[in-house]
Write a structure and sequence with these properties.
Helix content is 37%, strand content 27%. Helix 3 runs parallel beside helix 6.
């Protein structure tokens, strides 16, 4: 399979605040890799740096061996790294269909767009039912499905999901995680940032623990899930 994404010594500053202190991270092709940590640890900053949304102060981001550090967001999207952002950030006044089509803006091949739409509707039948509905009228769960569906419309080589379970009821969270597993089985590599550490690590091949801008632990998802320190800090002691 090989290495898809490599981050080396990544530092990000917001003015005088040092958000990331020089982190290293690797995502192998075909894996689900999870980044866990408390609020303000730098998880979303990491995602936004990979996406080109925030500037890096130091370090390198390599995707399929190519240095993409400092490249524009649209260059990064065209190369196959697509983010479903925290808080969903759908277009509330547009229809479900229009939102999905926004995700396919970089794809010139009409047949590819039609195929992607079919796959999204297969994964999320509710979106097919709601195709003409105004996106802002969807439930929180449906909006999350739409955000993920829109990201999938761009045919990602690396799908980045930032807090997909945020604000959802426990039963709905289970549904979202089983959908993430289905997307993965369809051949998509996933980098996941998630507050629900137990659920995230249980479906992950590999995980990283981020604490105030530093990676303090890493290992197989199952190993981190059973680690006493991780349990005490992020899994409520279990």
């Amino acid at each position: 399979m090989g290495e898809l994404l490599r981050i080396e010594g990544l530092k990000v500053n917001y003015g005088n605040i040092k958000a990331l202190h020089g982190i290293d991270l690797v995502v192998e092709e075909g894996q689900i890799v999870t980044l866990i940590g408390s609020n303000g640890a730098g998880k979303s900053t990491t995602m936004n740096a990979i996406s080109g949304i925030v500037k890096t102060a130091e370090g390198k981001i390599l995707f399929r061996g190519q240095d993409i550090t400092g490249k524009s967001s649209d260059f990064i999207v065209k190369n196959g790294i697509i983010l479903a952002p925290e808080g969903r950030q759908i277009f509330p006044r547009m229809t479900v269909h229009e939102n999905l089509m926004m995700g396919a803006l970089t794809i010139k091949d009409r047949a590819q767009v039609a195929k992607s739409l079919e796959e999204v509707f297969e994964l999320f039948p509710i979106l097919k039912e709601r195709d003409k509905q105004i996106a802002g009228t969807l439930s929180g769960c449906e909006q999350q499905m739409l955000a993920v569906g829109r990201a999938l419309m761009g045919s990602p080589k690396l799908l980045m999901l930032d807090e997909p379970s945020l604000g959802l009821a426990p039963l709905i969270i289970k549904e979202i995680f089983s959908l993430i597993e289905r997307i993965h089985k369809m051949g998509t590599t996933i980098l996941l940032v998630e507050q629900n550490a137990k659920m995230a690590l249980s479906i992950s091949d590999y995980g990283y623990v981020l604490e105030t801008g530093d990676i303090t632990m890493q290992g197989k998802g199952s190993d981190l899930l059973n680690d006493p320190k991780v349990r005490a800090a992020y899994l409520g002691g279990m």
